[in-house]
Amino acid sequence: MLRTYTIALLTFLCSITSLSAADYHWIGGSGNWSDLNHWATTSGGSIHPQIVPSPFDDVFFDGNSGFVAGSSTVNLNVVNAFCHSMDWTGAMNTPTFTGSQGTNGNLYIYGSLTFIQNMAYQFGGSVHFLSTNGGNTITTGHQYFSKNTWFDGTGGSWSLLDSMSTTEFKLLEGDFHSNGNSIRAENFFANTASLTNDTLDLFHSNVYMYLRDSRFEVVADTSNSSVNNQRWLRTSLDSTNFYFIRPTTYNRQLDLILVDTAHIGEVIFSGGITNHSSSGLDQLAGNGPVYIEKVVMNKIGQISHSSNSTTTNLVHIDSTFIYGYHSSYGGYIQYCDCKYIHIENRGYLSRGLSEYVYIGGIGNIQDGYFDYVVMDSTANINYGNSFFQGTFIGKAVLNDDGNIIGRANQSSYPLDFDTLQLTAGQTYNFKDITTITQNGWMDAVGLCNAPITLKSQTTANFIINGNYLPPS
Questions:
Q1: Residue 182 exposed, middle or buried by CB count within 10 Å (0-12, 13-18, 19+)
Q2: Helix (H) or strand (E) holding 11
Q3: Angle at the Cα of 204 (from 209 to 84), degrees rounded to 5?
Q4: pLDDT for 346 beyond 50
Q5: Which H or E run contains 298?
Q6: What are phi and psi of 382, to 5 degrees?
Q7: Helices in 308-416 by DSSP H: which ranges?
Q8: How does DSSP assign 55-86, residue by residue?
Q9: SS3 of 385, please?
């Protein structure tokens, strides 16, 4: 695929196509990348190459590079620097790798990369991995890539050998394997159409998103792309955990459109008790192949389907906890097969499936199948719509006032309960037809000093145990 830097590379590549690969060894301590006096053809040697390293050449920084106190800085002084593989193994006296072009600098690597822990990585530009071959490795030495880290090589493959920390991670072309190592990024993207069968393998890795508006987006199904003959991105996200670690008032997002089934561990949007009322939004979107064990949202939370939603293509979550608060809602969940849901404050559920639902604040439920529902504040339960063809609730426990909105035409989009449990001292408004299914119950036991008040907004009717009961 063509990238913005392609034209910039053409002139350079055309000038070196006749050259064979060579080894470049850094010598002489501090110096500029473009200074040929700091490159030798052997480790510690004195014969200098005639041109700066090319995409075919491996570069080495080792114990013979002459790094000593006061003279241990390699300055990438050109806008675009190239090499095949780069290896700092054996470099001594904590050398520094920097760049005088700042964020405009680019380092293009066509092979593997090996950094060491005992170095100072201060290069502020982007790093581009462009190999078109397999078997490449990346050892970061726990250095922080302070700008973009992009992977863009048709047929290329990279294996991460330790943790990675970067500003933006982007997989454009090729295969990336984390090998269970952690990744820390402001943003993470694997969302563009590809002409090859690429792979994103994050199996058993922890992914930490640390920007105040971090976004992790993987689009494996690019069938709607305008690119001809595009291929799906194969993914391995089993046992992967996602942590959005910076409390913020901005929006944070995890968006997964997958082809391969993923059994993800946990997704945690941090916040803290003092941040629950933040106006920022935590968003999670996924499609049918996405299965998540646990989701925790400490701000306003929104869970939805990412694309092409159907009743059999919902995102799947075992346990969901949303603690955010806002005047409109704290938690908003739709198009989700969410087995256990705990919404601490105001909550809205629509077009979903759930075995257990707790909503602590004002709650709204419409359309779907909900086995057991507990609502501690005002409940608004509505008839269904065309997605699930109705609202079907096993048992609803309403501990405060409620509005039960059935449908005049019970044959379409009905509101059905197996058991509806009302609370003494509360008031419930009914509209149109509400059904208590065969062998179900309407549990409404008031007290002398706390009666249950049933009101009708229009002509309200119950069908209980198959019998039609109009109002008296």
A1: middle
A2: helix 6-14
A3: 75
A4: yes
A5: none
A6: -120, 155
A7: none
A8: TT-EEE--TTS--BTTB-EEEE-SSEEEES-E
A9: coil
Beta bridge partners of 129: 109, 151
Structure tokens that stand for 401 in this block: 């006032």
Q: Which residue has the tokens 């000593």?
A: 68
pLDDT of residue 120: 98
Q: How far apart are CA 241 and CA 205, in angstroms?
A: 6
- Listed residue (117, 153, 121) closest to 135, CA to CA: 153
Distance CA 276, CA 61 (A): 49
Give the Cα separation of 425 and 245 in Å (integer).
44
Query: Residue 101 is which amino acid?
Result: Q
Both tokens of residue 60?
Answer: 């080495």
- What pLDDT score does 351 carry? 96
Q: What is the pLDDT of residues 179-226, one digit of tens each?
A: 999 999 999 999 887 777 899 999 999 999 998 899 999 998 755 544
Residue 109 and residue 81: Cα distance in Å, rounded? 9
Q: What is the CA radius of gyration of the chain?
A: 30
Give the number of C-alpha atoms closer than 13 A to the C-alpha of residue 292, restricted to the C-beta side. 29
Rounded to whole angstroms, the Cα distance separating 271 from 282 reads 10
Residues 6+ away with beta carbon under 8 Å from 380? 362, 363, 364, 365, 402, 403, 405
From residue 183, how far is each of 161, 165, 207, 241 by CA, in Å?
11, 6, 5, 10
Structure tokens at 106: 């680019």
Residue with tokens 């003494």: 424
> How far is the C-alpha of 405 from the C-alpha of 458, rounded, in Å?
10
For 155, the 3-state DSSP assignment is strand
SS3 assignment, position 188: strand
* pTM, two decimal places: 0.90
Share of the chain above pLDDT 70, in %: 88
pLDDT for residue 472 is more than 60: no
What are the C-alpha distances in Å from 441 to residues 1, 438, 463? Answer: 63, 9, 11
What is the distance between the alpha carbons of residues 95 and 93, in angstroms, rounded to a whole number?
Answer: 6
Distance CA 421, CA 105 (A): 66
Cβ atoms 296, 267 nearer than 8 A:
yes
pLDDT digits (tens, 9 = 90+) for 111-123: 999 999 999 999 9
Burial class (CB in 10 A: 0-12, 13-18, 19+), 466: exposed
Amino acid at residue number 164: M
Task: Report whether 379 contacts 349 (CB < 8 A).
Answer: no
8 A C-beta contact, residue 173 and residue 151: yes
Q: Which two tokens stand for residue 312?
A: 């059999």
Hey, what are 217's tokens? 């987006």
